[in-house]
Write a sequence for this structure.
């Protein structure tokens, strides 16, 4: 099965570090990409869960990254096409 190629992201400004982590897992529906950063949110309903976790990890990540002046977001080509998590952090100035 050929997976569609995701477009290359724009380059971050020179005063920001951008990190992207990509997997080839279940993917996330576009309508859920922002919701995954809410506390206790899980993409599967409680009765259909196949994975563990409390739904706090990404909410905590967003809080930490925002407090450091960065941002975090997710992209996915859709169900069963993997997910990429991206975050930026400001670089220290001399």
């Amino acid at each position: 099965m050929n997976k569609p190629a995701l477009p290359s992201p724009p380059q971050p400004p020179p005063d920001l570090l951008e990190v992207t982590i990509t997997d080839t897992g279940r993917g996330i529906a576009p309508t859920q990409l922002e919701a995954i950063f809410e506390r206790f949110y899980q993409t599967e309903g409680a009765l259909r869960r196949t994975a563990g976790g409390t739904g706090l990890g990404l909410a905590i990540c967003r809080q930490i990254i925002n407090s450091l002046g960065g941002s975090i977001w997710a992209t996915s080509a859709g169900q069963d096409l993997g997910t990429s998590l991206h975050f930026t952090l400001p670089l220290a100035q001399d």
